[in-house]
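Technical note accompanying the year-one report. For the benefit of new consortium partners, we illustrate the data format agreed upon in the data management plan: each record pairs a sequence with a structure-token string. No post-processing was applied to the example shown here.
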Amino acid sequence: MDGERRKTRVNFRILLFCALGIAFGIFLYGKIRFGGLLPSDFLFPALFAGFALIPFSWKRLCAVLLTVLCFAGFGVLSIHLYTERFDATLPAGEYRLSGTVVSVSRHRGYSVIVLDDLAADGGEIGGKCTILLPDTSLRPADIILFDAELEGVDPDKISFDGYTQNLFSKDIRYKGTGGGIELIRRSKDPFLRLNGALFDCLHSHLETDEADVAYALLTGNSGGMDEDLGDVARRGGIAHIFAVSGLHIGILYGAVYAVCGFLKKYRFLPALGIALLYAGVCGFTVSALRAVLMCGAIGTVRALGRKHDFLNAISLAAIPILLFLPGQWYSAGMKLSFGACLGLALFGGDLTRLFTRMRIPRILREYLAANLAVQLFTFPILMEAFGFVSVWGTLCNFFLIPLLPVLFLGTLAFSLLSLVIPPAAGIFMLFPEGMFSAFVYLISLTDLSLVLSGFALGTGGTLYLIGTVALSSRFRLHPKSRGIAASALAVLFVLIVTFGNVVVSGARIDVFSLDGESLALVRTGGESVLVIDGDVDVRDCEDFLRRTFGGRLDAVVVLSEEELAGINVACFLNTDTVRHRDEIETGLQNTEVRFGEIFSVGALSFRYENREKLTLLFDGRTVEFDFGHPPALGADLFIGGADGKYRYYL
């Protein structure tokens, strides 16, 4: 029996295979339903199945296939029903809308409100809605009535649009604008009411920036944070502290668990109850639910006097989330939350033993092992979700994570005391006020702009995950075989990423077009030109470039009826020259703006046909850019306004 176990490449954990089956079903349905199915999508499942069936036996084959296929069917059914409900929306138009405010994101001069429990023209409708409103004093738990201009969210766009993926994962089926708001009453939902009370308490006793940061730390709603502060946090790799995650739940669970030591083996029950209540205040986010379920599973196993298995705990948490919230598969938060746990399960023990042999002090080696294990597995997820990975993340978290229990528990405790004893709130809130004032001040002074970006992983992301899993001791490979496999996968990964991002010969065009804004990046071996059209935002341009190109642009070409607005956006980008067809007065001093119908950038020759149509001549081929109308000119390649992402090679 021991000899057979040593030959087994992957233990048959029934919960793990059930979770993987559901995930594969959701993944496959999404690829077929929304487009983009590639042969490489089957690479990881095929390799895992191959390892799982060693040593081969009919009993093992039947167990693996039946488990995975059966639960894959459950996954397909779950995501199909979810998608059908999501797609059954009202036609676009004006409605008298009412709903309960569940979150508020404030920006300069306006607010983005997420509403639940919707009713349009007096009739209840499913899903949630995101509404753009004039800057208001709304808060969670407010029930409002107003006139709204609504349109349904098209789920067919989720294959290429991260914004639509985010809406889909949160069951936000409508988006629109509104006005004439009437506050009807407050919701009776105790979780929402407590969330709103925390918002009021923090904003009554702290300055706006400090209050927004504290509220984000406690509830995970970072929409009100100053955009520059949020950008610094993301680039510094510490944005996870403003999204209620396993770290927050773990800190709270651990604190209550320690205080309730007198209950001995049953002390996990009050700790689990408090963690569950806190998850409710934060809106039962998927990362909070995952952490609560894992704490419950591990606590129960320990209470029974048995040794817990981390992979089984992760799988047990994943099964109900994937079955009942299948849209979360498209959420970056879920992928990062479970990815971090998988990284710890796969590499935490190996790295700890490695650092022990290196005689690194215990506290330092445990932190380094956990941090590196998480980053190893989440690297491709971060690149896909945000287009960059922080260079400073490990260092920033080294100082911040040890302080987080004090900051988080202290702010939560003093905020709750302020709600219970309002006359003493001014005294209780002195601690959060001082801590967050110092925190905001330090972040505002820190330059964390250095990130790893400017390229896309593509299929290399799948290959990377295969390579990292192959390095884990969870896959029982001979050391020599492990080294050969890891080396071969590393070389293949570098080749795929290089081929996908470096233009060796000819020209490459990357295109993104969605909701009235279009971007096209033209690259040869020596030139790079960005074409922008429509109502383009600087942040969208920067995000597009982070995912496609990390160098300096030779030129930005503006195609837009709003010429001055387009030129102003172009001037904020990393470029030498801005090009436009008609000469206009810009008032710009530091950016060179050139005008003319015909111009060249190295070997690339451009010609404006009109304000919204551009042709490119390169290597005997003609490319036509026309994002607003059907093509009128003959061209070897036409790039039109259909929504989506494209990649062309000339």
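Partners are asked to follow this layout when depositing records. Residues 58-87 form the longest helix (30 residues).
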